[in-house]
Amino acid sequence: MGRRDDCVCALLAAEHHAPEETQARPAVKSLISGLLVFGRTTTGLAARTGVLA
Predict the structure, then answer these.
(1) How many CB atoms lie under 10 A from the CB of residue 51?
(2) Residue 40, class by beta-carbon neighbours within 10 Å (0-12 exposed, 13-18 middle, 19+ buried)?
(3) How far apart, in whole angstroms, are the C-alpha atoms of residue 20 and residue 5?
(4) Cβ atoms of 48 and 15 closer than 8 Å
(5) Going residue by residue through the chain (53 aa), what tens digit of pLDDT does each one get?
(6) Burial class (CB in 10 A: 0-12, 13-18, 19+), 48
(7) Whole-prediction pTM
(8) Fewer CB within a 10 Å sphere, N or C end of the chain?
């Protein structure tokens, strides 16, 4: 797996364990926005965090 995939997997794991934290943190939203700009990420994750509204 590549670094981007590792990052997405880590974000999904964090969301599983603490969804309220991943959905409320500006740093997480910024990270997901960057992933969307520079490559593939799950749109579900982006939508749940409010990045794709």
Answers:
(1) 19
(2) exposed
(3) 22
(4) yes
(5) 578 889 989 999 999 999 999 889 999 999 999 888 877 667 788 888 888 85
(6) middle
(7) 0.79
(8) C
